[in-house]
Amino acid sequence: MTVSATATVESSADVSPAAEVGAETKIWHLAQVRENANVGKQCIIGRGAYVGPGVIIGDRCKIQNGALVYEPAVLEDGVFIGPAVVLTNDLFPRAVTPRGDLKSADDWHAVGVTIRTGASVGARAVCIAPVTIGRWAMVAAGAVVTKDVPDFALVVGVPARRVGWVGRAGAPLVPDTSSDETGRFVCPVTGELFREDSRGVLAPSDPVH
After folding, report:
1. What are phi and psi for residue 20, nearest 5 degrees?
2. Which of 87, 96, 133, 93 is nearest to 109 (CA)?
């Protein structure tokens, strides 16, 4: 195990000797970090959270209490995982084979959830692998994500559907009333401008000065 000298690992946490933990990361009570997991710098792994074998977590991520991050999930920098979130890894979950034998690791192929930079997944949401949550997107609490989420999208419900857009601050974007051009939005917190193209893809534009 490579644990940075500046990391904090509570005594009741279970961190595999084969895991890596970056500088200034905090792993709290009863959390489990499995073998070959790689946790970046300045992360917070909350009480009772689970990080599966080989999971990759970027820098400055927050994984809240009781969240379950199953392998082979990949979280980029600045990702927020709310309390009791589940990132699944099995398309067709069964405890036994068709013959009734207990399944082993060789009897199934794990598929993972990918969460891009800055995205947030709200409390008790479930992401059904394989899906990708786009950059700075926001998944509402209790949502069930069954398909990819675009960058900056706000998705809610079961199954999750897009109901709006959010900026980097997390606040819903509002129409840009300073322009007659359609498909322009502005973040009410940062003033950053965005444009939605004909494909329904949102991307930042020039910031408001």
Report:
1. -120, 135
2. 93
Token duo for residue 21: 């933990």
Give the model's pLDDT for residue 205: 87
How far is it, in rounded angstroms, from Cα 80 to Cα 64? 8
CATH code for the domain in which residue 44 is found: 2.160.10.10
Question: What tens digit of pLDDT does each residue of 45-54 get?
Answer: 999 999 999 9
* Helix%, strand%, coil% for the chain, nearest 5: 0, 35, 65
CA separation for the pair 28, 126 (Å, rounded): 22
Structural tokens at position 35: 């073998």
Tens-place pLDDT, residues 106-147: 888 899 999 999 999 999 999 999 999 999 999 999 999 999
Among 47, 16, 45, smallest CA distance to 29 is for 47
Range(s) of the domain holding residue 160: 1-166
